[in-house]
Amino acid sequence: MLAIIGAGNVGTALGSAWRAKDYDVVYGVLDPEKPKYNTLPRGSVMRGPAAASGAAVVVLATPWLVTEAAIRGLGDLKGKIVIDCTNPLAIGPQGLHLALGYDTSGGERVATWAAGASVFKTLNHIGAKNMAAAAEFDHQPVMFVAGDDAARKPEVMRLVSDLGFAAVDAGPLRAGRLLEPLAMLWIELALNRGQGHDFAFALARRG
Prior knowledge:
- It contains six helices and ten strands, in the order E-H-E-E-H-E-H-E-E-E-H-E-E-H-E-H.
- The chain has an eight-stranded mixed beta sheet, with helices on both faces.
- The protein is an alpha/beta fold and about 210 residues long.
- The protein has a single domain, classed as 3-Layer(aba) Sandwich (Rossmann fold).
- The model has no long low-confidence stretch (mean pLDDT about 95).
- Helix 5 (about 155-160) links the parallel strand 9 (about 140-145) and strand 10 (about 165-170).
């Protein structure tokens, strides 16, 4: 079972895409009774601890400012895979920027909060509505995966590939220091450089 923590744009896009591939998906939220969750499959929305307790994989799709509290509220995550889709974004005098880097990353912070879990940084450097539409691009979009648990990384790579992305191993979790600025580049191109939201990064090879 996959437990997606957060049912906003990112969480619901990922959930619908994985459900389409026959994964069992539940959503963990603070208040499952909110009317906005009525569009999600019946019985799939519950409080975070209940969602995480029965899941082998926990997917973080929360705003950065509430991510630490969300993780600490889930209970014991030891032995679980935690996929960190967040980006440590903050607002400053010049607008949106990364609150962390380059000597650490949001993914590394998540690993300290989710003690004993196998944490992977991925699904963070593309817009939310593209996460369920990877097959619609004229070139297969790339999705980098960073994490320290080599034994369990293939499982995460498979989950990413099943969404339609070309999953590429980006190395250890500290590579999140590179992937989070890549997300910032996507945001800059989308919001300020006229690219719109319907684009993704891809790997091109000669020959």
